[in-house]
């Protein structure tokens, strides 16, 4: 696919929303409706963001030089959004740590995974970012599409997750478009083989590491063994079943002609922007609009 004929909507606006969320005590400790497993998986996900999103920025910016003007502008909006996400999740993680959670084991695992990736050529880091950005986009879609996922959660924490989800959808095509530009001279068969292999590897690490991280945090709340596994797997795969519900969107990544914007889900963004939380938020930063 040529980078001049990408399905990213020409009228898409990437809007860095410079939100600052609560910095005080995270009360209660089990902020997600008193649920040990729900609190644990969201805390485990948040633990990945400060370092992980800095890695995404670094990986994409490495291929910004020579990019078409439209894509260069998208990268600018992407990097600004991700930097703000890192800041806000670092603050959220400090709040979780202040309640007594030890996130160091989870953070060390992130550092290990990224250190291994960084020993390889920069195109590998970009491919990993492309795959992980698809993960975050489909998780964000499900989070915004189904209110059950944040039902009962602390209001400020839920606002943080919805805000983050909104921007992940908004910039979901940037890493993929950068990948297409960086590999524009590759045969299509090679491009597909590499992206498929990387996605399978990323999926394995994502599911294993997030599950292990959540179980570790549940252990810190005194829930261990079969009980912990049963509660977490039920929550992730059965009800509300976030991981199960993104399955079809995950499979689409491997189909010929895939692009994140094959599904235009900006209706979710419009619904978010119309929400009370978004209306009450500070004005966004200067918008970064795609060139038509």
TrEMBL record:
<dbReference type="GO" id="GO:0016787">
    <property type="term" value="F:hydrolase activity"/>
</dbReference>
<protein>
    <submittedName>
        <fullName>Metal-dependent hydrolase</fullName>
    </submittedName>
</protein>
<dbReference type="InterPro" id="IPR016516">
    <property type="entry name" value="UCP07580"/>
</dbReference>
<keyword id="KW-0378">Hydrolase</keyword>
<dbReference type="Pfam" id="PF10118">
    <property type="entry name" value="Metal_hydrol"/>
</dbReference>
